From TrEMBL:
Coiled coil: none annotated. One of its GO terms (biological process) is dUTP catabolic process. The gene is dut. Residues 10-142 form the dUTPase-like domain. The keyword Mitochondrion does not apply. Transmembrane segments: none annotated. This is Deoxyuridine 5'-triphosphate nucleotidohydrolase. Substrate binds at R63, S64, G65, N76, T80, I81, D82. Belongs to the dUTPase family.
């Protein structure tokens, strides 16, 4: 599938790093480093604008290496980019570590995964079919 993209950053287009990669890295399109204190949030621009086909969304997800090494995450993960959005892709980042961290220009800050979705319509009913799990909530399926 081809997706239209405008790249107003100084960096190459996002690309898959391996044959089995589901996501492409997004880079910080900034001129100077950003410092984020503990528990601070910010929106980091990417310089990218996309036109997704209807029936698809782009999901912005944390990079596992940054989450582990720096405590940097995407608080609304996955962040959804709708098919009719035409603005610049921005990545909301939060520093979950106890120390201040730095985001460098061009640093790979998040992943972008494109996924199909399906629209639904609600059918109001008075009861639902029974299932093995039933109404069991969080943790109800056990620990193993």
């Amino acid at each position: 599938m081809q997706v239209k993209i405008i790249n107003r950053s100084n960096f190459p287009l996002p690309s898959y790093k391996t044959l089995g990669s589901a996501g492409m890295d997004l880079r910080a399109n900034i001129e100077t480093p950003i410092r984020l204190g503990s528990l601070e949030r910010t929106v980091v621009p990417t310089g990218l604008f996309i036109e997704l086909p209807q029936g698809y969304e782009a999901q912005v997800r944390p990079r596992s290496g940054l989450a582990l090494k720096k405590g940097l995450s995407v608080p609304n993960a996955p962040g959804t980019i709708d098919s009719d959005y035409r603005g610049e892709i921005g990545v909301i980042l939060v520093n979950l570590s106890k120390e201040e961290i730095e985001i460098a220009p061009g640093e790979r800050i998040a992943q972008l995964v494109v996924a199909a979705y399906q629209k639904i319509s609600w059918q109001a009913v008075e009861s639902l079919e029974q299932s093995e799990r039933g109404t069991g909530g969080f943790g109800s399926t056990g620990r193993q």
